[in-house]
Please model this.
Amino acid sequence: MQGCPATAHHHRVHLRPIRPSPILTRLAFGVLWLLHFLPLRALAAVGSFAGTIGYYLARSRRRIGRVNLALCFPHLSSRDREQLLKRHFRAFGRSVFERGIIFWGPKARIQATVCLEGIENFEALKGTPLIIFAPHFVGIDMAAARLATEYRACGMYARQSNSIADEMLRRGRNRFGNAVLFPRDEGLLPVLQAMKEGLPFLYAPDMDLGAPHSIFVPFFGVTAATTTGLSVIARVTRAKVLPLIAVQRPAGYVARMLPAWDDFPSADADADTRRMNAYIEARILEMPEQYHWLHKRFKTQPPGKPDPYAQGAPAGPEA
Model:
């Protein structure tokens, strides 16, 4: 949050973001722990209801979602985009509440909740460098947890400012000892070393990580800062790229491992990154409500282009 602009008569005021207290954080995880005992359909219903409440309460995230959908689906009416956003909040709410299964559910329940499809595509590449390319659909954590019940892989994570949440998330992602996690701020060297030692790399490169190490390529026809990491890592390690698409079902999830890409990487990182975005677009069109629309995907823009999320920019109708 920005303070008041500095003038000759005023000092700049810095407002610190409000962070949940340790007590509230523990209470939230306590609620997730209690709810994870519910049958899956009941837990899904509770999560969907919470997502509906979140749509009305999370004003800033609702606005981000509206901007994203307006940019990516300008052909849809405002009403249709708003209905899509409501469905996304319900799907996202479900995914949050169902993570209790990841944190505390037994291995057998995780495996029953998430069906692993296309594992033969993964098995065929054992012993070769491998990048498991997992775009940010709402079920990405469920898919990763399902994979970790049986297979070793490495991945990166963003440190959380809340130490309790950070510890819970890291513990939940490595309950079975198969996930080797590296903080994103440590860079790629630990990942490259782990891949050299034979670990597949679970990689989700479809977020705005800022201008460094990113190029501007279209995403649904809109300029988007996009990391070239998928191309660069595949070239350096000579790894195959195997897509992992997480699909949320009425009861449970499907972690779909699709065939590895042919002719990737090319000699052109720009073309490779465009190919990656086009691939994600195609998967989004299959289930648009399940992509993570609450992230500021288009915040970083080339010099001279405005931030579409800035105050004053159009964000769609208020509900």
Q: What stands out?
A: Residues 143 and 255 are 5 Å apart (CA to CA). Residues 1-18 have pLDDT under 50 and may be disordered.
